[in-house]
Design a protein that fits this description.
The chain has nine helices and ten strands. The chain is of the alpha+beta class. A hairpin with a 5-residue loop joins strand 1 and strand 2.
Length: 251
């Protein structure tokens, strides 16, 4: 399964929507602000904004808060949203695992210091721009929940230009080019398929298989430390581990 094991590879064990619910209101509101700023402040006409709003609603953010964040992004409530920057950081975890971090911040120095501290305390190090990003490629990913008829999903996905489909008993994922994500998402929904999320995700070109329990625990601890930072939106790494090792590592 593509992506890092904490959320993407563990989809067989823990749905991605749980990760969304675990995010703070502040993180989700920032995503709405930046999406509204980068396009029209109308979710129906702005795919990025619509996705950000959907995630916020799934996490239980009140509509008033969502509307306020859209207003901030559109400049109706001042220029607060103008101070937020989208920045990508890169580094290494224990065992040479490559880590990509996507952040929204109004203070680069604070964010870099927080990330450096999280890496250092968990056996890794924050690297220079470009040190690991060459190992990843960004793709559009549509996630579906529940039991989906594999043949039906494959037929619809391939007709809409999808590149790959991964299915299991709980979740399915359809991968496509970035430019095709919105069209694929809308088509799958129009067919009545149970879409729960559409997103851009960094996919590693190669992965590191983790088999040691201590190493697994260290890596998951690092992922947690990074994802808990307020400025961090997404964390991706190129390690894989079995479900059994994952369960032991989280116990």
């Amino acid at each position: 399964m593509a992506g890092h094991s904490k959320w993407a590879n563990i989809k067989r064990q823990k749905a991605r929507v749980d990760a969304v619910k675990g995010k703070t209101f502040a993180k989700l509101s920032r995503a709405i602000i930046v999406a509204a700023r980068s396009g029209v402040p109308d979710p129906d006409a702005n795919f990025q904004l619509r996705n950000a709003v959907d995630k916020a609603k799934a996490a239980g953010i009140p509509n008033d808060n969502i509307e306020r964040a859209i207003a901030k992004g559109s400049g109706k409530l001042g220029a607060d949203g103008d101070h937020l920057e989208e920045i990508r950081y890169e580094g290494y975890g224990v065992g040479g695992v490559a880590v990509l971090i996507e952040a929204l911040t109004d203070n680069r120095n604070r964010t870099a210091a927080d990330l450096r501290s999280a890496f250092t305390k968990n056996g890794g190090n924050l690297g220079e721009t470009g040190c690991v990003s060459w190992m990843f490629e960004q793709k559009g990913v549509v996630t579906l929940t529940g039991t989906v008829e594999e043949d039906q999903l494959l037929e619809v996905a391939l007709e809409e230009g999808a590149e790959d489909v991964k299915t299991d008993t709980e979740l399915s994922e359809v991968f496509t080019e970035i430019s095709n994500l919105e069209a694929l998402n809308q088509t799958l929904k129009s067919k009545g398929l149970p879409v729960i999320e559409a997103e851009l995700r960094w996919i590693p070109g190669n992965t590191v298989e983790v088999t040691d329990l201590d190493l697994a625990r260290s890596l998951l601890k690092l992922m947690d430390a990074l994802e808990e930072l307020d400025d961090v939106q997404n964390v991706t790494a190129n390690f894989e581990m079995t479900d059994e090792l994952m369960s032991l590592s989280m116990s």
